[in-house]
Amino acid sequence: MKLLTFKQQGSDYLGALSDAGVFNLSAAAEGDIAFSSMQHFIEAGQPALDRAYAMLASGSAFIPPEQVDLLAPLPLPAQIRDCLGFEEHLKNSYKSAIKLVAMAADDPVKAEQELQASGRFTVPEVWYQQPLYYKGNRFCVAPSGKDVVWPAYSDVMDFELELACIIGKKGKDISQASAEDHIFGYTIYNDFSARDTQMQESAGPLGPAKSKDFDDSIILGPVIVTKDELEDPYHLRMQARINGETWCDNNSSTIHWKFSDMIAHISKSETLHPGEVIGSGTVGLGCGLEHLRFLNDGDVVELEVEKIGVISNKVIRR
Fold it and tell me: CA-to-CA distance for 186 and 178, rounded, in angstroms?
């Protein structure tokens, strides 16, 4: 099932998207709290999903998608973690970082050679030993279609094309073999990034902060596709277009650390809860840094993942 959160006539609703249009699950459920929000629906588990399928099958009142305002499918996640799952992205980013640093030197060619030889810009061994992640700000989530105002402290705008899973079942010390049982569904994740700020913060040992955390910096959507409908998330075409120009055309099959690896690692001595979001990390060539091309004021960023849909946002400066 493709689930969404939408606004109509000033109220927020849980809905399902089908070929016939948007079906209002909240209204059809007649006050059942399990259908009052995406978070409550996820927490209600399989019985709620079974009832939703039954309502959708017998429903007749479908709303044309253009008549609703889409919100992020999970407007306020319980938690957000963003992992580094794709080796290609990491290698490309280090190569670009070398070029960016070398450009500022008196002899860029010599500086680039020295930086490559130094080994400073190589994938760290720990990345091959365990999934790495940082925690995002759950209050920064925004929907497809919303203009993203770039933070005033940054001049280098970038996007990141990611897949994300949503946790559906509580668990601790989850094994890799059973990790998939804890996934509710999947969505698209755009991790907007202030690259100049990130370069400054990377000198510290604590990871990204203001380079990732600013209003509307995390785009989720347009829907959550439930796990039963998207059984294999590792063979999905992933594309990024800027003003209609394709910058990335890759596939989730290139992932190194799968969601099962991430869940098993994160849940060590720590409880995962329904409604938590785990990002896959950026797919190879899925950001401007890898191309040494960045966003300009007014650019429209479209990210598409096969079987999930498209999210689109304009970046603006004020």
Answer: 17
Write out the two tokens for 40.
């409550």
Taking only the tens place, the pLDDT of each residue in 214-232 is 999 999 999 999 999 998 9
| Last residue in a domain, options 70, 91, 107 | 70
Are residue 145 and residue 238 in the same domain, yes or no?
yes
Range of the domain at 257: 79-316
The confidence score (pLDDT) of residue 111 equals 79
Percent of residues, the chain, with pLDDT higher than 90: 86
Provide CB contacts within 8 A for 80, sequence distance 6+.
135, 136, 137, 138, 141, 218, 276, 277, 279
Instruction: Provide the pLDDT confidence category of residue 60 given band limits of 50, 70 and 90.
Output: confident
With cut-offs at 50, 70 and 90, classify the pLDDT of residue 7. very high
- Residue 48's contacts (CB-CB under 8 Å, 6 or more residues apart) are 34, 35, 41
Q: Token pair 């007649």 is at which residue? A: 30
Residues 64 and 206 in one domain: no
On the CB side of 49, CA atoms within 13 Å amount to 17
How many alpha carbons fall within 13 Å on the CB side of residue 165? 28
Does residue 205 have a cis bond before it (omega within 30 degrees)?
Answer: no
Q: Are residues 33 and 56 in the same domain?
A: yes
Q: What is the pTM of this model?
A: 0.96
- How many distinct structural domains can be found in the chain? 2
CATH of the domain at 289: 3.90.850.10
Q: Is 20 in the same domain as 156?
A: no
The mean pLDDT of 17-36, rounded to a whole number, is: 96
Are 101 and 11 found together in one domain? no
Rg (CA), the chain: 20
